[in-house]
Amino acid sequence: MVKKSKTISRDDKKVKREQAEKQLKEIKQRVQDLTSEEYKTFERFKELPLTADILRGLDRSGFHSLTEIQKLAIPECLKGNDVLAAAKTGSGKTLAFLVPVVQKLVFENWSDMDGLGALIITPTRELAVQIYEVLLKIGKYTQLSAGLVIGGKDYSFEKERVGRVNILIGTPGRLLQHMDESATLQTDNVQMLVLDEADRILDMGFKKTLDAILGQLPAGRQTLLFSATQTKSVGDLARLSMVNPKYVNGNLANGGIGGEELSLPESLEQSYVVVPLNEKLSLLWSFLKSHLQAKILVFVSSSKQVHFIYETFRKLQPGIPLMKLHGRQKQKARLETSMKFTQSKNCCLIATDVVARGLDFPAIDWVIQLDCPEDVSTYVHRVGRCARFGRQGKSMLVLLPNEEEGFISQMSAKKIEIKKLNIKGSKKKNIQSQIQSLCFNSAELKYLAQKAFISYCKSVIIQKNKSVFKIDELPLDLFASSYGLPGMPKLRLPKKVDDESRMKLKEKKNENRKLKSLSNANDEGEIEDQTKKVRTKYDKMFERKNQDVLSEHYMQLNPGLGGKMSNTSDDDDDDEEFMKVKRHDDEVKTADLPELELNSSKRAMKKALSRKLTAMKGDKGAKLVFDEDGKAHPVYELDDEETFLKEGPSKVHSEFLSTEREKMTKADEIDKGVVRDKRAEKKRRRKELEKQLEGDSDDSEGPYVATLGALASGDENADNYESDEYGEGVPDLENDLEDSEGEDDVQPEKKKQKKWFDSDKYKDRDSKDAGVFEIEQPETTEDLEALAAKLMN
């Protein structure tokens, strides 16, 4: 019975396999019979000629209806044609190429033994992760395997598994690294090549990397290019070996290419404002304060600007959560930030163009472009982060007065209409003074401001569109003040930036930094074999640096703490070409230090290295001041003869000195007269006091008797209190008396009277001849009368 059941199960598997092959042939035939008039009428995925496993994955993932680009591109891709597709942002381009990729490998009965079958290349890591997540959803019920290779991940972990995947997604730099170094990755059998955001990848920044990748792929592959703004350059198509490509445009209903026209979502509300360069940060601050319950994405031109604005606003606390995202961050931080921003309902993300393409952040309310984009294509990609899949969205472009005319005219040429906004004066808040205060108190923040200033100037200089970007017309001094800097850093502007130098800058920006650091180390002879070096947990513990976000900048700012003022950091992009800081380091005078022998005693070593003894032997330091060029000068410095003569003839100086001398003489006479009058008044009051003590007891005043208790007691120090030199206590009482006579209701606050006779020799004395007793400071007239009567008795 057991053998019979096995025979039946084998027969069932054979029948199922034959049915699957038959269905697959029918689907293939249906794909070839599809016409453009037929597939343009499709509305849902289940109407497409797809296998049951793919349709099941689409349905379970919530993908039911077809968008315009999916309706037009998927059938052409399934037929095996090279496709050049363009569609508006948020129109579903990811599924438009993932569905054909999975279906193509299913048609070929692809398995793990066949190796790599499809290669998908994206310009950014975040976009690669997003595509990978979508692929896992729709291909869940197939037998295919997928892999993700991006920078910032563990290369050794990827190297062990990259040879066993059927669909590989990655960025150009990491893909090329695996092709060169991973022996298990074989690309001879690749069936499909997909370039997402193709115009960015075909840009000259990725030119060498992409050419190296294409050189290792078979020529008979199928190539798909997808982007919101597409290229039709003959040279680019020849590089990709595309044969009779089909042009698909999801922006137009007829599926044709709309020339130079760029289409944006209809639910997007576009606007722009014109502000001076030094008011950009204040504008952003005012906007955030008035939109605390919104989800905002802010674009700036460089990562250093992102860092500075984030740290500054974080200290000022606008009342809305702040995030930052740029290409200089580590991969873990970038993924965490992307996840947090996706899940947040109200927050502000300050980012560069690394998130301008392809990323799907749900429910973004506002896209703010604080810096003008390099071209209209970049503008389209930036604003495409909102108003996706029919949702509402708003965008605001911030332009400078010299940028408005050129950029708006270019947008009009592309048939993009945008309205101008005027900001109310009551809504504007100037935060320049707060930023200056922060930079004054924080050397790290001031350093970030300098780097951000140079980075912005650099981004303007290297722009190709000189009708919009004009560095000569920018108020750089006011811009530096708005960043909290006391003065504008000295810039060394290049005379001319041609296409070749611009290409070098972009190549440097997109190159693999880890490979660069390793190559530099090998060139210098520092590292012989990286594979032999094993870092233990103790090595990591001792090599760990301060995790503060500004620690690296602070170490560069203070080389004495262990930093190096050299271009070794990832954040330094040859800024020395634009700013040179003159530093005059005093040379150490080693001649004055005693020579130490190897056999010197500990006492001799300590004495020689003592700072105190060294300072006593040498000359004492002098206080110096530094001018703008960094040169040291004494605080008081005599002018030379030429400077003295330039200020005027000697007669002018002598007249000025004589006039000032007369003024000082008159002032001295007035001061001496005031002091003389005060002494006479003290003497007169003292004599009046003595007369009152000698006179009738009823006329005596309590404060004088209480203060002069030492006179009645016969104290040996009594004469000291009568003299002008030691009569400090008497004028205080006189001033108190004058205050009490002048103000009837207000009693001035008096200090507690010092107890003069608190010594032990006067305590417990029964002799009545001593005439010494302790009293408290009298407060009222009754106290004074009682005290006077007691003294008389």
- Distance between the ends: 139 Å
CATH topology of the domain at 21-249: Rossmann fold
CATH superfamily of the domain at 21-249: P-loop containing nucleotide triphosphate hydrolases
Alpha-beta content class: alpha/beta
Instruction: Note the main sheet.
Output: 7 strands, parallel
Strand line-up across the major sheet: 3-4-2-5-6-1-7
The tally of beta strands, per DSSP, is 16
Main location: nucleus
Enzyme class: hydrolase
EC number: 3.6.4.13
Keywords: ATP-binding, Coiled coil, Helicase, Hydrolase, Nucleotide-binding, Nucleus, Ribosome biogenesis, RNA-binding, rRNA processing
Structure, explained:
There is one protein chain. The chain is of the alpha/beta class and about 800 residues long. Among the domains are: about 20-250, P-loop containing nucleotide triphosphate hydrolases (Rossmann fold), CATH 3.40.50.300; about 270-480, P-loop containing nucleotide triphosphate hydrolases (Rossmann fold, 3-Layer(aba) Sandwich); about 695-790, no CATH class. Helix content is about 45%, strand content about 10%. The chain contains 32 helices and 16 strands. The strands form three sheets. A seven-stranded parallel beta sheet has the order 3-4-2-5-6-1-7, with helices on both faces. It has a seven-stranded parallel beta sheet with strand order 10-11-9-12-13-8-14, with helices on both faces. A two-stranded antiparallel sheet has the order 15-16. The longest helix is centred in the last third of the chain and has 45 residues, at about 650-695. It comes from Pichia membranifaciens NRRL Y-2026. RNA helicase. It catalyses: ATP + H2O = ADP + phosphate + H(+).
